[in-house]
Every structure is written in C-alpha cells, then in structure tokens.
Amino acid sequence: MSVVLTEIAGGVATITLNRPESRNALNPELAAAFPAAIIECDRRDDVLAIILTGADPAFCAGFDLRELSARERGSEPNPAPPYRAAIPPHTKPIIGAINGAAVTGGFEIALACDFLIASERARFADTHARVGLLPGWGLTVMLPEVIGIRRAKQLSLSGAFLDARTALDWGLVNEVVEHDQLLVRATTIATQIAANPANSVQAVMALYDEVAELAPPDAWTVENERARVWIAARFDRAGLGERREQIVETGRRLAGGPYSASDQDE
C-alpha cells in the first residue's frame, strides 16, 4: 500500500500518513511522499483546505530509528528540503488532525500545520535529546511561539509526553474531541474554510505568514497597507450582499450560535 493516502471531496483534501505498522515513522519514502502530496493538493483548483492526519494508532513517531541507526555516521536521514519547516510552503490552510502520538519529527510536522485538532488519544513529545539528536525542522522556533519558552524547554529537555488535555490547556491544540469524531470535526472546519472565497482565505493566510516575521510596529503597518490595497483592487463589492445573507443564514442554522444579522455589519 502507498505510504501516503489522499482523498479529495467537497474542496477538502485529506492526506494520511500510512505506515501504521511503524506508527507512521518517517523512512525516506514517507519523508518524500507526504510533502509531495501536500504540494500537489495545494496546486489543485479543487482543493481549498487540507487535513493532515495519520493512520491509527499514531500521527507520526518521528524518523524511523531502525533505518537511521543503520546509516553511516555523517549521513543525513533525508536530503535537506528546500524549505525550513517539515511542511512545504502552502497557500491552502493545513489542519493537523492529531489522532495519536506525534513524536520528535512527527511533533515538528504537527507544529508546521496551521492549527491542530486533537483526538483524546493524542500525545506530543520531543525526544531529540533523549535519542541524541537535535531538532532540524524548526521545533526550537515554533514550539516556544506556541507554548512559551519555559514549557518548551521542559518538554525538550525531559523528553516527557504531553497529553491532549494539557496540550489544549497550553494552547498547543485548538480543540480536543473524541477519537471517532476527529476527522468529522476536522472536515467540518475544513468545509467551513472551503465555503469562503478562496482568494480571501489565501490572502489572509499569506498576511499571517508575512507579519509573523516582523516586529509588532512593522506588522501593524503591513497589515494596514495590505488591507487598503485589497479594498482598492480586489474587494468584490457586487457580491457582498449575497455573501452577507449566506453568513446570516448559516448563523441562524447554528442553534445558540454566535452569529446574528447585526454581527455581519462590519
């Protein structure tokens, strides 16, 4: 079977790491195949959001240590990718659906997603120090941004596992759901994203990425400039009324939901 499975429906691509017998550990084949699948889905016009998950029982156990230990000293587990993080640059949102353990390299893959929905069975650990390696996919950059430097150091230096509920409390994941509802929930969110104008979604994504590299005063300036240019050149005034009605109608269908007609006037 393929080490990566891809399904596309309703504007949503679901990419599954598929080495369950090895807890989806990264061998050279999988390490090459899952970024290629992301790149392909990101290029497709019929894909507006991407879900990345693993075949049970794990999300990804990091690099396959049996394969890594067989290599000669000085060789790399994989050629260095032409991008910094574990996931290639992308214009479509990537939702990490964390179904089990996300360890070391698998933790870095999870961190590189745009946000995470976790099963109650999800666990996170950075065992680089424990196995005698150093992070190379941005963990020491991304993890402190998400949970703070002190908690990040605690995880990396101890190699301890973080359970799903604590990950939620620490802000690492957005939601924790029952295991059998994980893909249901991730697909619901992805479908909501896919229902929005694709050019707006991708522009907001790009803006988040752009300002993340800037100091706050510069970030404020860039956001304001991008907004003004967008309104002048790209804003679809003709379709605004229809979109507003669609949003209001969606809000009405959500029992006890946060939307009302007055919420849509901004």
Q: Please state the overall shape, judged from the principal axes of the Cα atoms.
A: globular
Q: Provide the CATH topology of the largest domain.
A: 2-enoyl-CoA Hydratase, Chain A, domain 1
Q: CATH H-level name of the largest domain... which superfamily?
A: 2-enoyl-CoA Hydratase, Chain A, domain 1
The appropriate CATH architecture of the largest domain is: Alpha-Beta Complex
Q: What is the CATH class name of the largest domain?
A: Alpha Beta
Q: Helical residue percent? A: 40-55%
The total number of structural domains is: 2
Number of strands: 10
Keywords:
2-enoyl-CoA Hydratase, Chain A, domain 1; disordered C terminus; single chain; globular; six-stranded mixed beta sheet; about 270 residues; alpha/beta; four-stranded mixed beta sheet
Task: Provide a compact summary of the structure.
By secondary structure, the protein is α/β, with parallel strands linked by helices. The chain has helices spanning 28-43, 65-69, 105-112, 128-131, 139-147, 149-158, 164-169, 182-194, 198-212, 216-233, 240-253, and strands at 4-9, 12-17, 49-54, 58-60, 94-98, 101-103, 115-119, 123-125, 162-163, 175-177. The chain folds into two domains: 4-193, 2-enoyl-CoA Hydratase, Chain A, domain 1 (Alpha-Beta Complex); 196-264, no CATH class.
